[in-house]
Amino acid sequence: MACEVKYKGQTLNFQEFAEQLHNGLLDEFIAQGVIKNVPTIKSIQDAIQEQSAARVLSRQQGEAGKAGGVGEGMGQGKQGKEAPKASKEEVISPEATVALDEETEALVSGLAAERRAKGKYTADGVTYTRNEKGQGVLSEQGGEVRFTSEPGGGGVVVPFRYKLVEAETVQPSHTGGIRNPNFFIPEAQPKNRNDQASLQAEDSFATNPRFGELGEDNTAYKGAPVVNDRGEVIQGNNRAAGLKSGYKSNNPKYKQDLANNAEKFGFTKEQVEGMKNPMLVREVVVNDQKAIELGNYDVKDLETAGKRRIDPIALAARLPLSAKESLATLS
After folding, report:
1. Can you tell me the distance from the alpha carbon of 180 to that of 74, in angstroms, rounded to the nearest whole number?
2. Alpha carbons 330 and 96: distance in angstroms, whole number
3. Which of 173, 26, 48 is nearest to 104 (CA)?
4. For 221-272, what is each residue's pLDDT tens digit?
5. Is the dihedral of CA 259, 261, 262, 265 positive or negative?
6. Are 157 and 20 members of one domain?
7. Range of the domain at 248
8. What domain count does the chain have?
9. Cβ atoms within 10 Å, residue 77
C-alpha cells in the first residue's frame, strides 16, 4: 500500500515530505494522521513475533504428526482456524532490514548510552523502562564462566551464580530477528540477527529445548544463558529467545526438564513448578561497560588461543558512523 502524505490541504511529493521530516515534524504528522500506512519499528517487531510464534507452532504440529499422526484438532488454531505459517525467507523485508541497520547505527553511536542514563525512553509512542535489578531467585551455587581462552589457561573468566527467573523478565537482544526494545545494552550484540542461522537456532530451542545445552557448561556459548543482574542477556540470545517463544507456544518440555534437574543448580522441584514460566540463567555481576565487552566475544575466542581473528563484517558493524567516515577520508 502506498504511503499517503497530506498536509494543510495539499499532497506533498516525496522531496517536500522529506524536507518536512528534516524539520522535525514527523511526530506531529503521525499524531494528526497526516501520515498513513507507514510501518514503524514496533509494528514490524510485532509482526515478526507473530510469524515466529507461527513457525514454532507449525513445526511442533509437524513433529507431532510425524510421531503419531495428527490427532483431532491438531493443525488448527483458535476457533478451528488453520494456524498461520510463515516462510523464513519472508520474515523480514529488505525495507525492514534497512530500517534495522539504521537503528543499530544510531544505538552504537551513543543513543543506547543516553537511554541507559535515563533508564527509559519513548519510541513510536511507547515508553520502555529498563528492568530493575534483583528479580528472580538466586542460588548459592555457581562457578566461573569462560568467554575466551589463552595459552596456559588464561583468558576472560567471570564468576556467576545460578538464578531462577520468570521468562518474561529475561531480555534477549533480539526476538524473531527483530531487536528487542527492552534490551538496554544493544552494543553487546550489535549484529542484526535476521539471518537464517540465527532464526533457525532460536526456533530449535523453542520446539526442542535440549536441556543438555541449557544447564551446566563452563563456557558462555553453551549452557544456561548468561545475563547481568537486570536479566539482560550477555551471551545466549538464541537460547533465551527460543525458550521464551517455546513458552508462548505452550511447549512444556523445558519446564519439566528444569524441574527434574533443579537440585543440580541449588533449587527445589517445587520452586520450579511454582513458577509460571521459569528459566535458568547464569547471573554475572558486572557493570554495563563490562557486559558490552563480554557480549562482543564469540565462540571463536575459545578456538584462537588468545589471538582473535578479525572478522571484517563484525568489525564494521561495531564501528560508529563517525569512525567509518574518518576511515573513508584516509588516503
Report:
1. 31
2. 32
3. 173
4. 999 999 999 999 999 999 999 999 999 999 999 999 999 999 999 999 999 9
5. negative
6. no
7. 96-318
8. 2
9. 11
